[in-house]
Write a structure and sequence with these properties.
The chain has 684 residues and is α+β, with helices and mostly antiparallel strands. It is built from 18 helices and 29 strands. Strand 6 and strand 7 form a beta hairpin. The longest helix is centred in the middle third of the chain and has 33 residues.
Length: 684
Amino acid sequence: MSALDTAAGASGEDATASEALDRVVLRYLQRRGYKNAAGVLRTEARVHEHAINDTVSAESFAKGGMSVVHAMGADAAISDHLLYYAEAEADPRGLVDGYGALRDWAQNSLDMYKNELVRVLFPMFAHCFLDLVKKGHLDEARELYTKYHVDHMRLYGDDLAALSALSEPEHVLSDPVARKYLDSKASATMTNYSFELLVKFLHAQNLMSMLSVLNAHLCVKVEQGEPSPFEDERDGAVVITGRTPEAQRKFNSIKGRWGLVDSCLEIERLRQHKRETKEKEKAAAAKAREEAKKSKKQKKDDDAADGGEEGAEDDMDEDGEQATDAEYPVAMLEDPPNITKGKVPLPTLDYDAHVAALEDLRFRIKLSPETLPTVCFFTFTHAHGLLCCADATADVKHIAGGFADSVVRVWHLAETAPGEERTEPVERDKKSPRTIPMTEFIGHAAPVHQVSFSPCGQFLLTASRDCQVRVWSMELKICLCAYEGHFHPVWDVQWSPFAHYFATACHDRIVRVYAMDKSFPRRMMVGHLSNVDCVAWHPNANYIASGSADRTVRVWDVNDGECVRVFAGHSAGIRSLVFAPDGRTLASAADDGRIHVWDLTKATCVISLKGHVGPVYSLDYAGGGGLLTSGGADDTVRVWDVSTPPPPAEGVAEDDEASGKVIKRVPLKTFPTKKHPSIQGQVL
């Protein structure tokens, strides 16, 4: 053979290899749906349609038969992957068998790594199922669901119920749960060694379909260190926030105005205390001068000495009282408050309500783990299955309940029934029954899911499944306004600390802010991936927290409607929220019974509380933010210590609570409710 023939043969082999690679790449682009890129490649490479269909299949490639790939030389590795992915995507059994192999491996792993490895199973399961349904492989999708959905019923029952209803490819494009998983990446946290074990297993078993799902739809945050032996499956539940962990950390680093505004009642009480202290000091100084003048006129030294000692004792008593009073002038504020300037115009409270609130702050005592609060229960009899919500005024003179028959009933505890005369004040501890006046507010057309008294007690807000929010006058006992803007059931409504504004939580995943003088919303906060179930106002009224069934807590700026914090850590939907009185922390409770306390400045979970069994319906702070009360479906009210330890001094070793790790605590006290769920808890 001549050199010319050898060169021609080599040139022919190069042309064949290049053409074969073009056909493989073109077929891959068509499989992936990149029509524009496939058209450009077909035009430039001049590949005909019949040549594309002649591409070697994965089966013939695996058998080592006549392979165009063999003629490609160094490009064989590229074609290997492209052919494998193109053919593997067309094989529905690959997803079913691949997930089964991954599930068996994770379930049989060492206990040290098992809790972290099983975290990725549900998002992998969901995406395999959605991919099969979207491509029309309904039998394989049903087989996958039937075999493995039981593993995830405890943590992801709601999502599984939505996925089980998908039976056509068109359903995937319209179902909100399916769109949540397809449009956003799920976030999971794993240690470095656990993640390496996972990736090595997928490569060793050639589970490229599972590896592609992991790469495309999961965002794994890899941490250094060893897995914690105290974590369970709920601690690492996968949550979809719509952002990657890096973007979320950057997002949560936004500086906020977490202090109290200058017009806050607590701040005004501090100023009032300072004025009273100065007046006491002036009065004490004047009294001392008068006593000094009297002592000069006394003739006997022993009488003068006795009088001086009595005066000194009086001064010490007065100084001691002043010191004690000055240390905690406001029981709701344990640390020196951070005063910030608010951007939301705030109204002034009614004068009588303003004075009453200041007096209430004056006489509040400081609570602590050693000095726990007392608990008083109001029981609604014959209300099982009918009572949906309840609330009480700050002076406990009125108690409102929202019922499933669409009626709002308000009991007036400080009033007498018609036809009765009262000569003595009401004894609330009296065992004998008495008739309590009650008013029915009729106007809603569906069950009432939330009632909320204004801070002054003059107005009552009600939210119903009939997509309406109404405000009622407690003086006139009529409906003043029905607010528009909702097209889905309203689950929660809460007044701002200064009244006038209120926020609603709706099934359409939107938080709305209203003002009493307008029937349409002033702000609409959009960002949750599922229905919003609860809202809470920051003490300075500049922020609103919202909890959703998407297992996230979001904090919104009322001034511009932007989201400034996203907290993910619960393994179930959020049921209740409350801000600390000093505005520095936020407590959230979920349907799984867990309570988390979040530091708003650091944007991290600082305390995790475990004790309730079932949903936690209500939260409220007590004792200046050092104690937290909760009521749940397990027929108990629990009191928790949520105080955070101060930073250690220099040269002192940090313990677990001061090292920045999440503090885990059990309740200080548990109060049973005689087999009645606690619908609403309030610290008065």
